[in-house]
Amino acid sequence: MLFSSISFIYYFLPMVLMLYFMVPFRFKNCILLISSLFFYFYGEPIYSVLILISSLSAYLHGLWIDKLRKSRYAKLPLICSIIFSVGILLYFKYADFFIENINWLFGFEISPLKIVLPIGISFYTFQILSYTIDVYNGNAKVQNNFFNFAAYVTLFPQLIAGPIVRYTAVEQELSQRKHTFANFSYGVNRFIVGLSKKVLIANTLGELGKIFYNLQESTLLFYWIAAISFMLQIYYDFSGYSDMAIGLGRIFGFHFLENFNYPYISKSISEFWRRWHISLGTWFRDYVYIPMGGNRVGTVKWIRNIFVVWFLTGFWHGANWNFVIWGLYFGIFLIIEKIFLNGILNKLPAIAGHIYTLFFVIISFVIFNTNNMSECIEYIKGMFGALNIPFSSAETEYYLRSYGLTFVIAAFGATPLTVKVINKIKYSKKGEHILNILEPVVLVSMLLLVTGYLVDGSFNPFLYFRF
Predict the structure, then answer these.
(1) What CA–CA distances, in Å, run from 300 to 305, 332, 403?
(2) Rounded to whole angstroms, how far apart are CA atoms 99 and 110?
(3) Which of 152, 339, 351, 450: CA 20 to 30 A from 160?
(4) Distance from C-alpha of 244 to C-alpha of 4, rounded to nearest angstrom
(5) What count of Cα atoms within 13 Å lies in the side-chain half-sphere of residue 348?
(6) Rg of the chain (C-alpha set)
(7) Domain spans in the chain, listed from the N-terminal domain onward
């Protein structure tokens, strides 16, 4: 079930809210668990059993870790938990990738298993791992109530595409959280904004991408238009989902951490990754990079740590070599920046840092969005005039005019300018009064516009569903 669907917005969500706020607090987690399982079952009937098995495994391993905490065997249940969770992820997400590469390397003819990827498995597996690791390290108390723990793992606002919510972030709120009108209002507003980002901007930019790939003949300019379009699309698609998840979480009394912080205003690749998919970056930092020694080791080991983290970051995104290369691509830039480029960037005007970052981020998303490296190389050739194609055409200019307004809105909205303007208006009493009147009108108008698009539009899933 998609957040950006009529069935979710006008049937599922109102029913869940009605049941949730009708029952006493002690039953609220049960309502969330049941509704979350139904939400997942709606899209993945078979794999609903898998997520329950994963939850039960993590719950039992947590109890086991707590029981052996002072024993010399305390690490055993942690290792078992990691092997079980990572093993499931490797089997369901990467088995065919390994078979394909073994066949290529050794000339075998092993038949692929053709396993359908369970939706959201990468996200909820990382949440489970964060729980057992934090319990072992003493950063989280063991959860004795299975229903509360299962509600955390399956919580539908962030189940399918994140953000990766660590157990420690909601540990207290699982057993005691406040439901206020202010939280509810903020959650609804945030949800509508995220929904609008997805349906009105990301989906529209996605249409332009489909047009590009269906063209018989393209132009150098259209290659760049399509590349920039995808860069904006994936931001609005994924940050829109995160907005909706954070908004829904707040409605139910949970405070999820932010997942994006205007990454396209960054002046370096390092800064970009502090602002992009924050929950994933901090997860790898805290559970892989720092335990390996982080930057508190010699240069050679530090470079090794960077490559390991960014290999895993790329591989986490998908069972394809282009994702691995995408991750290592960023790892190389981070090493180069740390060793000598940061000093140069700090001396240059800010605009130079922005251009440098955006240019290489655009190239990175070309790698990310292609199916294999030969397709990626062909695409990059098209961007840099190596395919003997014209610079522009009447058709290219037509689509540029048609989608020009969307590009302008998307580019402007990817910066904090809108928020700054609104905050400045709020400083005056008159401005605050006007905003209090306009805000609900604008939000209702956006919801109606989105509804019109959804009724008349076609199926358009979130890009990160495949991860």
Answers:
(1) 9, 14, 48
(2) 7
(3) 450
(4) 10
(5) 15
(6) 23
(7) 6-177, 183-466
pLDDT tens digits, residue range 264-296?
Answer: 999 999 999 999 999 999 999 999 999 999 889
Instruction: Provide the 10 A C-beta neighbour count for residue 247.
Output: 23
Separation between Cα atoms, residue 240 and residue 408, nearest integer Å = 18
Give the tens place of pLDDT for each residue, 220-247. Answer: 999 999 999 999 999 999 999 999 999 9
Residue 215's pLDDT band (cuts 50, 70, 90): confident
For residue 30, give Cα distances in angstroms to 26, 146, 287, 317, 438.
Answer: 8, 10, 30, 32, 37
**How far apart are the C-alpha atoms of 190 and 196, rounded to whole Å?**
10
pLDDT at 148 over 70: yes
Rounded Cα–Cα distance for residues 229 and 372 (Å) = 20
Catalytic option among 179, 255, 317, 433: 317
Residues 6 or more apart from 370 whose CB is under 8 A from it? 322, 376, 379
Q: List the end-to-end C-alpha distance of the chain, in Å, as a whole number.
A: 16
Q: What is the spatial distance between Cα 85 and Cα 254, in angstroms, rounded to a whole number? A: 25
**What's the confidence (pLDDT) of residue 347?**
86
Can you tell me whether residue 406 is helix, strand or coil? helix
Distance between CA atoms of 423 and 437, rounded to whole angstroms? Answer: 15
Answer yes or no: 317 catalytic.
yes
Q: Which of 351, 368, 210 is nearest to 277 (CA)?
A: 368
Average pLDDT, the chain: 91
The dihedral over CA atoms of 363, 367, 373, 375, expressed in degrees to the nearest 10, equals -80
pTM: 0.92
Q: In angstroms, what CA-CA distances link 39 with 13, 18, 452, 465?
A: 10, 16, 23, 14
Q: What is the DSSP string of 213-259?
A: HH-SS--HHHHHHHHHHHHHHHHHHHHHHHHHHHHHHHHTT--PPP-
261 touches 278 (CB < 8 A): yes
Contact predicate 268/261, CB 8 Å: no
Instruction: Identify residue 343 by its one-letter amino acid code.
Output: G
Stretch 399-406: mean pLDDT? 90
**362-398 residue pLDDT tens:** 999 999 998 888 889 999 999 998 888 999 888 889 9
Q: Alpha carbon of 338 to those of 229, 269, 270, 342: distances in Å?
A: 30, 10, 9, 6
CA dist., res. 161 & res. 237, Å (int): 11
User: What's the pLDDT score for residue 466?
Assistant: 55
For range 52-78, the mean pLDDT: 92
